[in-house]
Amino acid sequence: MKLDKLSSKTYDREILEVISKLFDKKSPIEILEILYFLRKDKRFLLAKARVEAGENIFNALAAERLITDELYDYLISASSNRKLSEFTRAYLTSMKETRRIVSDLIKQMASPLLALAVHYIVLYVAIYKLVKGIDMDEKWFRALPGYFRFLDYIADNPQIFMIYVVTTLGIAFIVFLLRKRLIPSYSFYEKMKLYLYLYYSVKSGKKVEEALANFKTSFDNQKFVSLLESGEELSTAMIESMKIKPKILEQVLIRSAFEGKESEIEKNVEDLYTQLLDLTRNSIAKTGMVLNIFFMLVVAGLILFVYLGINLPIAQAARVVAQ
Predict the structure, then answer these.
(1) 129-145 mean pLDDT
(2) How far apart (Å, rounded) are the C-alpha atoms in residues 17 and 86?
(3) How many C-beta atoms lie closer than 10 Å to residue 212's C-beta?
(4) Which residues pair with 219 in a beta bridge?
């Protein structure tokens, strides 16, 4: 099992870091020896043997499955267009930015999960410790608000609480599955994958049309090719082919990126990526703030209800029953 895991592991980040620093200073064989020293994966030695036999270093790395197919495609394009050092710097920088965004999205889910767990605990304590802890009779019920009969019924039938837990978890799971449509920050992140792919492709020397014609995630590449063939502008074809439709501001940025001279496209796409990266970060920050405030209010409201709606009435009723 351990060998299987090792043979399927890729080292995109490590390989890029070494290539970005040493590709112009060391031979491909020396680079592979350094990578083997760093990661102790024998596949680097197999790749070295391939290079010694005359194979290109990137072909050798791909053949031994040491890099992903996507990165291999970028590296081949970048090396053939003499843009390797520029591409590796851009790729490593954007990898850090992407990891930060993913980390922020994970943190964003913390407050809903914590609120969900706390609200289960609060309800359980209120029903099965406070309500069930009292042997209620008609005298008690007359001294308590009417909803205590329902709470007492739930306390005597724990399966109702379990049904509630399963139902709410099911709803939460459905929201999680539909998060790309329901939560703005997730839809922004999905669109960022397209902009990031376009950024990488242009940095590696590919043309925008070629790059988009091969992209499939959240993008209808067949529709894109069809629109281009029918005479649509590049920006219109891209916007119409996106499965998650861009906001008005995004559409303006996309259109402006593809206007002007062919020589300016790379710089424009880089600006487009940077601007949309900022939009994604802002969306994550705003969504996170809204979620935090909403679920804090939910938990605070529930705790307040337990105190004012359950604990306090029980204390008052206890004095009435004792008389």
Answers:
(1) 81
(2) 12
(3) 23
(4) 242
